[in-house]
Amino acid sequence: MTQFELSSSYCLTEPGSGSDAQAMASFAKDEGDHFVLNGSKAFISGAGSSDLYIVMCKTGEKEVSCLIVEKDMEGLSFGANEHKLGWNVQPTRTVNFDDVKVPKENLLGKQGQGFKIALSGLDGGRLNIASCSLGGAAACIETTTDYIKGRKQFG
Fold it and tell me: Cα–Cα distance between 39 and 13 in angstroms, integer?
């Protein structure tokens, strides 16, 4: 039995719309056996190093769908790595889609279910980020307390 792992990035936030799915500009045009995806996503964790990109995009005027974009698809590119105060273990970049041909087999769920999929992803993600943030804050308090206890100043 062969085992392998694929990493993926959750792509919802856009430069002009945050996480507001109805205001997103990324659009995938239905071309029969594939979609043609154009747009960009901002602040994407793992961008540039992930194998798959789980992309929320419009497939109609008020319809959001979820497409799986593979790392080697033509037209996929990345911005510069964001400079962050913390959480530097993982790259965070803009993901750009320029006429990316995405096969219909890469539609996650059904067409139009993207907003529901996005919300289910946010549920776990918010808990994850909160846990990491609390752990980081606790480490900061502990480090600061240790420093204050041993600090000597002015002789």
Answer: 11
Q: Is the dihedral of CA 62, 65, 71, 73 positive or negative?
A: negative
106-128 confidence digits (pLDDT tens) = 999 999 888 888 777 766 667 77
3-class DSSP assignment, residue 38: strand
- Single out the residue of 11, 100, 116, 12 nearest to residue 63, CA to CA: 116
* Maximum CA extent, the chain: 77
**Whole-number Å distance between alpha carbons of 39 and 102:** 13
pLDDT for 123 equals 64
Q: What's the pTM value of the predicted model, to 2 decimals? A: 0.80
- 3-state SS, the chain, equals CCCCCCCEEEECCECCCECCHHHCCCEEEECCCEEEEEEEEEEEECCCCCCEEEEEEECCCCCEEEEEEECCCCCEEECCCCCCCCCCCCCEEEEEEEEEEEEHHHEECCCCCHHHHHHHHHHHHHHHHHHHHHHHHHHHHHHHHHHHHHCCCCC
